[in-house]
Each structure stands twice: as C-alpha cells, then as structure tokens.
Design brief:
disordered C terminus, two-stranded antiparallel sheet, 9 strands, 296 residues
Length: 296
C-alpha cells in the first residue's frame, strides 16, 4: 500500500506547490516547450516617429497598417558586456510596434520571481491580454514589455548583482538595454523606461533603479522583500540641485525659541518643593505667538 500512497502524496504535494507558484501551467512547460515564436521570425522596424506624431496621425485617420493585437516572442539577448549566462528572454510587442513605421515606444523591463522564469511572468501575469486590451483603447499604443532572465536558472538567485556567480546587474542594465535600443522601436529617454518585478524580481527593481537613474525613470516592484526606503543608494536618484536646495532650506530655517513654563504653571519650584498654586491642568497660561515662522 505504501508503494502506491507515497508517490501519490509526493505528486499531490508537487501539484499543490505548483498551483501556488504557477511555474508549470501546461504539460509542455514540463519539457521546456514554448508556444511562442522567435523574434527572428518577424521583421521589426526601427522607430520612425514619436508617440505624439502617432497621436496626430490617429486624429487624422492616417495611421500605418498594423495588426489588431500584439505578439509575445522569445529572443536570446547577447551578453556582450557581462558574459552572463541567461535563459531566453520574452518580449511583448504591441500592435504599433509591429507596423512598418512604428513610434518610439516606452519600455517596461519586468523581472520574474525566484524560482521562476521569463515565460512564467508572461503567462501567469497575463501580460499579452492586459497589454492588448490597453492597446485596443489607445490606437495600438502600449509599452513594449521586455522580460529578461536575471538568474540563469530556476534554482539560482543572482541577487541581480555582479558577483563571482555572474554579472547579472551588467547584463540587465547594459546588455539588455543596449540591445533593446538597437533592435526595437523604443524610446531612449529614461523617463520612458521603467523596471518592475515580482518577489525577487521586485527586490532587484528596488536595487537597480536607484543605482541607474540615467536608464530608468520609474519602478514597479510588487511584493519585494526589500522596502524602497531601505535602499542605501536611493539618494542617487535625487539630483544634486534638489539636494542643495533641501539642505540650504534646512540650514536657513530658524529654530523656535525655547519654551519656558510659567512659575505659576510649574508643578515644581526652583528649590525642588511642590508648587501648590500650580493650575496648569485647569487653566493653562496663554502662550505668545512665536516670532519665527516655518518656511512656506
């Protein structure tokens, strides 16, 4: 009987864990099968206009031809600077990105949790359906979603840092970004780039965005294990001019004068004896308005 029950218990336990993490949603994922085509199977054009230009064409009814829905694709992103061994990345391209004259689109660089994979984030996060619904209401416009692999394998945690186990930070912030700007119709400005992630991917987000404010203008961490305020590098995202203004304002703010309690209100006199005439609790002595004022 035990020969039959033990495998069943192990199988039910494994299914229970997978129902929580959602790593293997189909039988195909157990053997590494992916239903998504490679980026190399389609032609992607470079940006030919800005998003504002695209809006103008939409108002005039002269948008370039494009599909009704976006596509999810796989790609091997070269590790030219980092030499980091990463699994295939996943990309969502909205309808506007698939036109022959696409605009320079914003980018969401998203990171999965650990254990996890780029394909798991795309599938479990319902990325394609969410972005397609958004694009349908915005003339085919939606962010390009780029999901690189920050760990190399499901059981490894790279800490999203450059360590002896691999240069994950350089891969995510240099190799991936440079490749995207070269191969996809993406905007170059940091205000059009955001990084986000779930769980360990969210922790990586809170580490990397403050360290690279020249690349990312926003962060979207979800259920990360590290609060944003705890980041020792958070101050790097504050411009020097802002820091100087804040410091100068603090230095120029006059301190309020010390409040000296009235002898009548003091429960203890200077000689240490109790003041029987103290009436503070019943009728406090009115205080004069201070001469100093808080800066507006």
């Amino acid at each position: 009987l035990a020969v039959v029950l033990v495998p069943l218990v192990l199988l039910s336990t494994a299914l229970g864990v997978d129902s929580i993490y959602g790593e293997y949603q189909t039988i195909g994922t157990l053997v590494g099968y992916t239903p998504y085509a490679s980026l190399g199977s389609i032609e992607v054009h470079k940006a030919a206009m800005s998003v504002s230009d695209w809006h103008s064409k939409a108002r005039k009814g002269s948008l370039p031809s494009m599909p009704s829905q976006g596509k999810v694709l796989t790609v091997d992103i070269p590790n030219a600077k980092s030499n980091f061994t990463a699994r295939k990345a996943m990309i969502y391209l909205p309808p506007a990105a698939l036109s022959d004259r696409p605009p320079a689109l914003p980018v969401m660089e998203l990171l999965a949790g650990q254990p996890g994979s780029p394909s798991r984030l795309i599938d479990a996060g319902n990325i394609a359906a969410t972005m397609n619904a958004y694009a349908a209401k915005h003339d085919g416009l939606a962010p390009i979603v780029l999901v690189p692999d920050q760990n190399g394998e499901a059981t490894h945690n790279s800490l999203c840092a450059d360590t002896t186990q691999g240069n994950a930070e350089t891969y995510l912030t240099t190799d991936v970004v440079n490749w995207a700007k070269k191969m996809l119709p993406v905007a170059k400005s940091a205000r059009m780039w955001a990084m986000g992630g779930f769980s360990q991917g969210g922790t990586c987000t809170t580490q990397l965005v403050p360290r690279h404010p020249d690349i990312y203008g926003a962060m979207l961490p979800a259920n990360s294990s590290r609060p944003m305020a705890a980041s020792p590098r958070w101050s790097r995202s504050i411009s020097p001019a802002t820091a100087r203004r804040t410091t100068n304002r603090c230095r120029s703010t006059p301190s309020p004068p010390p409040v000296r309690p009235s002898r009548r209100c003091s429960p203890v006199l200077a000689n240490g004896t109790r003041n029987r005439l103290a009436t503070c609790a019943r009728s406090p002595t009115p205080r004069a308005k201070p001469a100093w004022r808080s800066p507006s």
